[in-house]
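User: These chains co-purify. Model them together.
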Amino acid sequence: MTTDQDHADVPRFAADGLQAFTADVLIHLGLPADDAERAAEILLASDLRGIDSHGMARLPHYVEQLRIGRLNAAPEIRIVRETASTATIDGDNGMGLVVGPFANELAMRKARRCGSGWVAVRNTNHFGIAGYYPMRCAENDLIGLAMTNASSLVAPLWSADRMMGTNPLAIAFPAATEPPVVIDMATSAVAFGKIVLARYAGESIPAGWAVDAGGAPLTDPQSFDNRCALAPLGGSRETGGHKGYCLASMVDILCGVLSGACWGPFAPMFFDLQSSAESEVGKGLGHFFGAWSLDGFMDADEFKRRLDHWINVFRQATPAAGTEGPLIPGDPERLAEVDRRRNGIPLAPQVAEQLANLSAELGVAWRQ
Amino acid sequence: MTTDQDHADVPRFAADGLQAFTADVLIHLGLPADDAERAAEILLASDLRGIDSHGMARLPHYVEQLRIGRLNAAPEIRIVRETASTATIDGDNGMGLVVGPFANELAMRKARRCGSGWVAVRNTNHFGIAGYYPMRCAENDLIGLAMTNASSLVAPLWSADRMMGTNPLAIAFPAATEPPVVIDMATSAVAFGKIVLARYAGESIPAGWAVDAGGAPLTDPQSFDNRCALAPLGGSRETGGHKGYCLASMVDILCGVLSGACWGPFAPMFFDLQSSAESEVGKGLGHFFGAWSLDGFMDADEFKRRLDHWINVFRQATPAAGTEGPLIPGDPERLAEVDRRRNGIPLAPQVAEQLANLSAELGVAWRQ
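Assistant: Joint model of the two components:
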């Protein structure tokens, strides 16, 4: 999450214009119109929810990957195995922003028919913010879940090697009159962007965020190089780093091992245009989607009223000294979206310049 | 996890004898023989796996709860809602050690029939170690998952109140020639027992473990009283405490809200014999069980070979300086079990004395 203060001096752009531009760019590069619209919607959902790292900032990179054929603009997505409540999908090296919605909708259909639906995905790529997918479930009286593995950047507890990605998991629960509870979290201690921000600010970082080339805690972000790694959630053994490592393992096994995708250190590198989507252990990145029908457990209305009550009780818990009290999972992103829908999306000058360059190079009008 | 060194001077007892004694005690108190045998098996699984807090040490308390009728020795467990892949169960205030296996087996049956099975449980009680249940799944070519909510002891990030339990989640994945990957973790930074141990040792505790009555980090375990709380996994905001709070919320909503059980601060207190299993928001504690059939996603043998490969690659990751390298989730508990099956279970003198007293009071032979 970034805050409004971080963007006080940055020009803001209307979400609709950015989304239309993104869709036009993707259509220009060969995506079918429906896929392009959906992919643009997911990218903008990230910017709207304040997760600047996963939205428009990534478009130039996706464009490059599409141009060189590293991403398949028009994948033939196949269901390779299926039961009433499960399936495995091969994404044909399409954009995760295209393959992800296909798989998520399949999980939702299965949940409507038999109570729950589970879809493992291989041969796919980065799918944007994990939280986008379960939020679609929550709009339909389903509890949704999404995970993905990712390029290796995180060391297991007691290792010095980058062995796993930030491997996020997201889950969303629909309420009645309250907004949904939306959990969307990396299983690493922090995102890589936090190291970069500390470096820019010339500040040290807490001991639980990263490890050096020897696997020891690293506190000077200036010395974080490609032999260093992020730490799992929890940091050291004393503060629960084994638990973050366990969660990242769970995500990697469900997304990578179970689907036939690459896993662990074999996951394709996001920023390496040379790397292939295949490795000796599988194909592409892996995702895992799930949906439970509320009605499979209790009347949907009853669940949503109960969740309203839960939300209100937690919101009213006594604040810790010096704080405004606990948030409900999803609050910060929801508040960011209210602001950004009203006032526009703040883009870093470098990102705005890259998008303007894209517009000129591709001959796709920059719609503002 | 406790280690062998912790128990160097403690007498050890054969697991078989303890298990038979436990079953006899439970039968004496009115449990059907099959239920008693299973409950004893689960309690001993905890001691065998080195989780001393959840095994024999709890038997005297269960006995007291059964004696005063706080636990129902012979519950009529009912399926109150069901679809092909989901169900909700009312445990009739039975022991979690009896209701849990019923629900877990229902999830397993559903997974065999339609790819996955999910069972929410209300009106139940503490079910022992969460890891026991998914391990049964892993023995049957299923991926298993179990969660439970628990008596409130943990403060949400930015709150000073005990609002949720240590809310563990467990998941197990079967491998081919390697032992299964077994994750079993509380979503709090640490278990309460860690505070107690630090108190005995006269040591301070890290800032991320607990908060004082005002919600500020607490480092002196001597001052931890019933107005203080454990911190969620991650500790402070800076080190990811919001993520541990999110995970604990996920467990509480799936186990408590979705099943019709009590949730959050309304969960019945384990050590308060006066407290009722019901509250204004629901009945008893809540569990949530899940199982996925490997064959629902890929050939079971292929998955298990792939997981062997994953395990071997992670085991061979470069050790961090001063460590022996990363463990595979489940390693410490598995190694404890090898030792304890061979050499017996070390019981703290107070626990051994309580069990001997139980034997005398109930007239149930102490089988050693």
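Chain B is about 35% helix and 15% strand.
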